[in-house]
Structure formats: C-alpha cells, structure tokens
C-alpha cells in the first residue's frame, strides 16, 4: 500500500478523515539519449541459483541513470512519458459483458530501447493517481536502459483518471476488486506485447498494495509476468491462513519502535506520548474537558468536541503515516506529492515530547502532543488550526447535483476503504504494552457495521486467503522478491523469510515504506543500497533464464 491511504483502520475518526482531504488534492526533463551510456548489462546467472555475492557486486557496478530534480527536490518525469488509455471490460469474467471504461497508463520508452531481447518494466498501480508512483519509483527509471527495458506505469481502476462512471461511480462500486484489476493488467501487457511485435520479458514492480498485487499477478498470471519486485507488501496478514496466523498487533508495534531510541528517536518520546494520550483521553470524558481539549489542540471547529476515540484515531493516523514515511531525507511521497515531510519525520515528531515533564504538567504534555502531530497535520507549517474542513459540510452546502455527487465522493475519501471492506480485511489491534495505543482488541462485528454504513458491503474476512492462498500458495510460487524495512509498520505483515530459491525475502534495516523502490539518494542507508543490488541481480537472473529458454526452443524448432 502505498501512500497513506493504506494504513487506515476500518473507519478513521471524522478528524482524521477531514485532515486527509485537506492535505491531499492529488522543466526538468532529461532526454532518454542520456540513458544510452547506462546500457551496461549485468552478468547472467544459472537457472534457479540464488545470486551469489559476486553477482550482486556485478549488479552494483551497473551504471544507473541520473534524473535531475526540481528546486524543491521533487521530480516531474511526465514529459518523458506518453499518456495513453486502453479500453477495458468492467467485468472481465462475465461472458455477456457489463460495459467498459478507459484505463490510463504511461509508456516511457528510452530511445535506446529495442524489442529484440528487450524487457518491460511494469509498475503495478495501486490506490492513488499513478503519477505519484511514476515520479517516485526510481528503481525502474534508473535501471531501465541497463536492461533494455521500456517503462510502463499502469493505473489501478477506480483511481486517478481510470474511474468508470464519472460522478456516478459510488453507485457502481461492484466492479472494483483485485481480481478485476489484475485482469486489467494482464490485458494491458498482452496488448503491449502485440504493439511491440515481440514476446518480451516483463518485470513487475509494486509497493505496498501494489506489491501485493504484483505478487498475486505473478501467481495468477505467470505466463504474462515473469518476475516481480514487491516492496513492503503485507501479503500474509489475512485471517484464515493455517500456516501463518494474522498478527493484528504488528503494525502498531513497529510504529512504536520507530519512536524508540533504538530507531533514533528521543528516549523520552514513548513514555511522554503515553502520558499525553492518557491526559487527553481523560479530559475527553467530560463536556468541559472536551471544550478545553478542543482549545489545546487548536481545532478549527471549536464546537466539534473530540471524544477519547477521536484522540486515539488522530494519533494513530499521524504516527502510522509518519512511521511509513520515516525516510532519511525530506520527501513528499507519503503526503501524495503535496508537501515534504522532514527527514526521519518520526524523530521530528518526538522532539516536542523529548523533555522532562512534571507529573502534574497535563497542559504541557497535551501541548507537546499537539506540536508532535503537527509534524504531520501541519506539514506546511501554515495551518492556523487543525482540521479546517469536514467533508460533510461540503455535501450540505452543494448547490448543484454534480457538486453534491462530487462532495459525496470526497466524503468517502480514497476507495481503498471499499477494497478493505469487500475483500482485503486486515484487522489491527493493540495490546497497550508494546505500543502507544490503549489496549484495543479486534472488533470484527463493529468493523462489519462500519463497512456497511460506509460502503454498503459486508466484510468477507477470509476471502483474501481463499482467493490467493496465503503462505502455502506463496511457497509454490516463483520469481518474487519481497523486501521489507524494519522502520515500516507494514513489515510485520509481509514475507520476512525466503520461502524458496526464487521466492526471496530481503531485509532492509533502517528502511521505511518500500524505500528501496525510490530513486537513489546520498542519505540512503547502506542496507537499502544492498537491497537494490540484490533485486537487480534477481532481475538479471530472470531475464537471462527467459531468453535462454527462448533460444533453446528456437534451436529445437530448427
């Protein structure tokens, strides 16, 4: 999962929801001729052998291409790509059809690319506008020429410009599913191969939910996609897997680790945050306390008084996203490209909580908590108050039918919530000991009620396990690299040990949410550089195996 939408509990508080809406609305171009110098091919590997240390070192020597940045440090690579659309079936599995929609994708083709012995680097789009991933997935960009690869970024149905039914989309959510999305990608790749006039090798790349889709794509369509780099993919935390019981506390446990001295944060951060949350939730127990709390937290709507559940939700949203985005340098990725978080933002969020607060200093603790979450909710440093608008207001104030429809879509927020309810139920809990949150068990019945209220669907708690097979199916798969960083809260829900010679786990100490998929940076931890070298070595192995087999078949046909 990618962006911050992935972390959400079943239904965040109105405060967390409205903050997301206010911070996420969703001419430095370098010609591809500069990539020609990067066409240094990596050494080949024997079939089913794991890359040796020598081979990994060879991968490290491959020349990667450099892409200049804008003055604010971001990248805008759209000028290097061609925006295209393909007509896709709304329902790939219904013989009579159900209509069609236009799926967006980008083709970014280096001038040095030739389909003979070429490859496709295919980004498996996830739950946001695909341009976010296009501008951040540097592992693909920097290595495309070295592998004679054309780069393709595919957008997930119901996101970005690939939303069917326009403003009436909320009445047609039944066509949003992982199965339909994977079929979209399969059709798109087959179409691309036809256009190229060659049976080229295809390597998938995906982060978070995109990494999950990438792994399942390889498992469901191994004849279409030949290997996948799946970064931070929480594929093994679904209910019903007899080989891997869901660890519902893993996410919050890692969030708390990121606040610890071991992760570089202030030693007092965790105990002071616990005290601050306790003080805030106790204030929220009375009407006068809630009024005082609204003032202390600088809420824009002083009449919208926070409950104790709101306080917990506000904290969970902020610290969960800060942990995912605990990158070593400033980046806007977790904020959907809108505003940079500071480098190691969790350390920045812990700074206000680093002091020694007196036992009775309730106001000081709550003020420190407000400053701490402000690293996230006021990343622009320009907000005079928190949560300046609530989506429900825009629904009431709409003056036209189209405005009302758009307001309702905005109120729903990201459609990831629908997928979570309809098929990808990943419940989260906290024990109140190994994390900063109060002890909160999984409440499946409440989650189901929330899903029905929000989306009109009931939970299918075991469907992901039934459809994709969990750990047992992963052991039978091939050509997938799962990478996970120990700063990333989703890491505890992923594949952390290699399952076979070709279903490989790469551990990334000091890595946040699929940092290895990003562009190289001088502040990258050494483990991230090593992870990329390993991933490139496996890509080279898969490509060599593919073309060696094609040559063998060609000789047999002579």
UniProtKB/TrEMBL annotation:
Keywords recorded for this protein, A-Z: Carboxypeptidase, Glycoprotein, Hydrolase, Protease, Signal
Region of interest (Disordered), ranges: 1-22
GO biological process: proteolysis
Domain of life: Eukaryota
Keyword Glycoprotein part of the UniProt annotation: yes
GO molecular-function terms, A-Z: carboxypeptidase activity; dipeptidyl-peptidase activity; serine-type exopeptidase activity
Record carries keyword Signal: yes
InterPro entries in UniProt: AB_hydrolase_fold (IPR029058), Peptidase_S28 (IPR008758), Ser_carbopepase_S28_SKS (IPR042269)
SUPFAM superfamilies cross-referenced by the UniProt entry: alpha/beta-Hydrolases (SSF53474)
Range of residues in the leader sequence: none
Family classification: Belongs to the peptidase S28 family.
Entry-linked PANTHER family: LYSOSOMAL PRO-X CARBOXYPEPTIDASE (PTHR11010:SF120), PROTEASE S28 PRO-X CARBOXYPEPTIDASE-RELATED (PTHR11010)
This protein's name: Lysosomal Pro-X carboxypeptidase
Species of provenance: Phytophthora rubi
